[in-house]
Amino acid sequence: MATRIPQQPKPKAWLSEKWTQKKIADYKPFNFVDGEGIRCSVYVSGCLFNCPGCYNKIAQDFSYGVEYTQQLEDQIITDLGQSYVQGLTLLGGEPFLNTPVLLQLCERVRKEFGQTKDIWSWTGYEWENLQQESEDKLALLSYIDVLVDGPFILAKKDLTKAFRGSYNQRIIDVAKTKESDEIVLYIDD
Ligand code: SF4
């Protein structure tokens, strides 16, 4: 059977303002798997890439989970404040289709912690396509230190890769990539 490869959307075809329901599928404080160090992970609800073999299919539904509240945000900030926590991780679902929630959260994280906590995000968008996207997505990208890009592709599944499910995905150093004319990897394995 032929493998369906998730297509990248045309620029600005998918807009957060249309899709997000500001729902959180899960929040996992103090975990070791969603990036380097001890991290607090926010799993947003809703994704349109619909990758076959998606690791979190239930979170593709924009209405799944619980509402993002000020109380949850305060809890995330308190948890991030622990000295042993390295940073915040955004995943889902699709973070870049939930920008109203995540812009608010990232802005607060920078306000409270400056650059002392790093921010990682997963996305189904490939870096090159994200550059042509809407202002809210570029604004969210401006808060991200490390971006794991691209959809999960079942035919390229490789569980030996750090922090990725398939080998098309890249762990990108956002600041260095912006300074350069080419993608600079944060982890190259
Ligand atoms: S981009 Fe990620 S969350 Fe979205 S369908 Fe693909 S694997 Fe699932």
Q: Would you report the number of β strands? A: 8
H-E string: HEEEHEHEHHEEHE
> What characteristic shape results from the CA principal axes?
globular
Residue fraction in strands: 15-25%
**Count of alpha and pi helical runs:** 6
How far apart the termini lie comes to: 30 Å
Global Rg: 16 Å
Describe this structure in words.
It is a single chain. This protein has helices at residues 16-19, 70-80, 99-113, 127-130, 135-141, 174-179; strands at residues 23-31, 38-44, 66-67, 85-91, 118-122, 146-149, 170-173, 185-187. The longest helix has 15 residues, at 99-113. It starts with 15 loop residues before the first helix and ends with a strand. The radius of gyration is 16 Å and the shape is globular. Helix 3 (99-113) packs parallel to helix 5 (135-141). It is α/β, with parallel strands linked by helices and 189 residues long. The chain has one domain: Alpha-Beta Barrel (TIM Barrel), CATH 3.20.20.70. It binds iron/sulfur cluster (SF4). The site of iron/sulfur cluster has 14 residues, from loops.
Q: Care to give the gist of this entry?
A:
By secondary structure, the chain is of the alpha/beta class.
